[in-house]
Amino acid sequence: MTSTAEAPRPPGRPRSVRAAEAIIEATLDLLAEGSTIEAISVEAIAARAGVGKATIYRRWPGKDALLHDALRTLKGSPPQPAGRSVREDLITLVGAIGHNVDPRAAKIMPCLVPEVKRNPEHYALYQSIVEPRRAVLREVLRRGIRDGELRADLDIEVTMAMLTGPMLIQRVMNWNPDLDVTTLPARVVDQVLTGIRAG
Amino acid sequence: MTSTAEAPRPPGRPRSVRAAEAIIEATLDLLAEGSTIEAISVEAIAARAGVGKATIYRRWPGKDALLHDALRTLKGSPPQPAGRSVREDLITLVGAIGHNVDPRAAKIMPCLVPEVKRNPEHYALYQSIVEPRRAVLREVLRRGIRDGELRADLDIEVTMAMLTGPMLIQRVMNWNPDLDVTTLPARVVDQVLTGIRAG
């Protein structure tokens, strides 16, 4: 150990990074406690993070940009499929739908839904989180068509909704108590691949 | 016309029916204005309907039973398919998913979602609305298997989720702005029937 007359610098990342993290965490905590994205204010976030409003405005132009970064942090990066087979990649991607590592997401995400339809800016915020995930799924389907694993005439956007919808309605509202979310990804992918029409 | 010395009876349905309707309407109005099913009280409903609490308890054992009837009234009866072809029946049923005649439903239903996962009684309430609709869909699929239109080995519960999920996520949160809900039912049904795997 070394002794010094100056106050020790806190270890690790620079102070501006720690302030940004505290601001993101404060935003997510307030949302998880029931603040709506409509009602949450930069003032409240600053107070909760223990920083001044100027610290927030130095990094984000406004509330929506901060919410965007906070929700992206909450959701994490879209999963990266292994790229060996379309079936395997689809099961990986479907399994990640609505799966949240951060427990605050289960409180925040369903409550966003009524708001995104009311407000175009909030809808844009929601889409900025969802579209990168859709893009990964779309690319796996396109690759499957190129490689001849999937029909050339398949309806890509509808197939994405068929893969996503069942997991979202199960994870968000447990739509059908007889469906187990752990086995659902493989069951959905296999049924989507095969179709239901007789022979 | 007959004249009488007594006060005229109001025309139409008996008073008890009109009171019940006013109670249902008051419940739906309060929910549409933002009351949660957690917070809404029999007192508030009685006050809004202009009746005493005893009038409510004469007809319903408690709040949950009243909410059940109010939500069933809101959603209406499940649609009845024509029964000519599986494809046509599925398009009818998928088109009805998340479609609400009563504009209050668009305000009430999405806000129920965060609550149904928190509270087993509210989940039971939600399921009592959803299961009759699932039952109609399930019966069309079973009929399709019996008649040889659909594969005998199809995964019925998963197929129901594949048919329902896309419409619900589009109607409730406009999940993908590139999907038009008016053409989605036929596109979903055709893709579910055919499957996506290459010939």
From TrEMBL, chains A, B:
Q: What is the lineage of its organism?
A: Bacteria, Bacillati, Actinomycetota, Actinomycetes, Micromonosporales
Known DNA-binding region? 41-60
Q: Name the keywords, alphabetized.
A: DNA-binding, Transcription, Transcription regulation
Protein's UniProt name: TetR/AcrR family transcriptional regulator
Q: Which InterPro entries match?
A: Homeodomain-like_sf, HTH-type_TetR-like_transc_reg, HTH_TetR, Tet_transcr_reg_TetR-rel_C_sf, TetR_C
Q: Which PANTHER family match?
A: HTH-TYPE TRANSCRIPTIONAL REGULATOR RUTR, TETR-FAMILY TRANSCRIPTIONAL REGULATOR
Is Membrane found in the keyword set?
Answer: no
Coiled-coil residue windows: none
* UniProt GO MF annotations: DNA-binding transcription factor activity; transcription cis-regulatory region binding
Residue ranges occupied by any HTH tetR-type domain in the UniProt entry: 17-78
